[in-house]
């Protein structure tokens, strides 16, 4: 997902290097800069235009503390199918090496066209886990040298979640 970014987005200075979040493997010696644990998706609305889900998450920052103002999501895909994630406008604070559960779940919309494409792929090859990719822009004030600096940090996401369509009693 390398792409040239402007120096500022919505008045926030852009952090020059994207952070990558993916599953931590037991063989990795040092932990990731950001650890993300995603809850199970919950269906909140079904309509002719598509399906709406809510997804909770727990975030741990090993790198630094921050006061997060809001999150935006770009090019989010589940198994290659494009989904729409609403801007997350609930403020929260991150403390270095402390896990925090997001105050409210993120809202995800799967349009009917993408739903049909995903259903067709699921019929041909059902998977126990789904691959989620995309980019999250974290807007906030990040602590550096004892001061908070207004920044937007691009975070590239590549992780797997449990398939919510499979009935797994375990």
Could you describe the 3D structure shown?
With 170 residues, the protein is mostly beta strands. It has a single domain (8-162), classed as Immunoglobulin-like (Sandwich), CATH 2.60.40. It has 1 helix and 15 strands; from the N terminus they run E-E-E-E-E-E-E-E-E-E-E-E-E-H-E-E. The strands form 3 sheets. Strands 1, 2, 3, 8, 9, 11, 14 and 15 form an 8-stranded mixed β-sheet that branches. A hairpin with a 2-residue loop joins strand 14 and strand 15. The protein is elongated. The chain starts with 7 loop residues before the first strand and ends in an 8-residue tail after the last strand. 15% of the residues are buried.
Give the proportion of residues in helices: under 10%
Largest sheet: 8 strands, mixed
Q: Give the terminus-to-terminus CA distance.
A: 35 Å
Total separate domains: 1
| Strand-residue proportion | over 45%
Overall average residue pLDDT:
81
Low-confidence stretches: 25-29
SSE pattern: EEEEEEEEEEEEEHEE
The count of strands amounts to: 15
Query: Looking at the structure, what is the overall shape?
Result: elongated
- The CATH topology corresponds to Immunoglobulin-like
> Helical element count?
1
Which tags fit this structure?
four-stranded antiparallel sheet, 1 helix, 170 residues, eight-stranded mixed sheet, mainly beta, single chain
């Amino acid at each position: 997902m390398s792409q040239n970014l402007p120096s500022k987005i919505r008045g926030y200075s852009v952090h020059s290097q994207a952070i990558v979040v993916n599953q931590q493997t037991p063989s990795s010696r040092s932990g990731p800069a950001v650890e993300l644990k995603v809850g199970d998706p919950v269906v909140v609305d079904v309509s002719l235009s598509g399906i709406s889900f809510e997804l909770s998450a727990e975030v741990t920052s090993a790198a630094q503390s921050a006061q997060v103002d809001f999150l935006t999501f770009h090019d989010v895909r589940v198994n290659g199918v494009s989904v729409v994630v609403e801007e997350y406008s609930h403020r929260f604070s991150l403390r270095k090496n402390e896990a925090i559960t997001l105050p409210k779940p993120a809202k995800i919309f799967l349009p009917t066209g993408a739903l049909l494409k995903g259903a067709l792929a699921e019929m041909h090859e059902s998977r126990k886990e789904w691959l989620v990719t995309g980019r999250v822009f974290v807007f906030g004030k990040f602590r550096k040298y004892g001061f908070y600096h207004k920044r937007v940090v691009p975070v590239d996401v590549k992780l797997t979640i449990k398939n919510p369509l499979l009935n797994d009693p375990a």
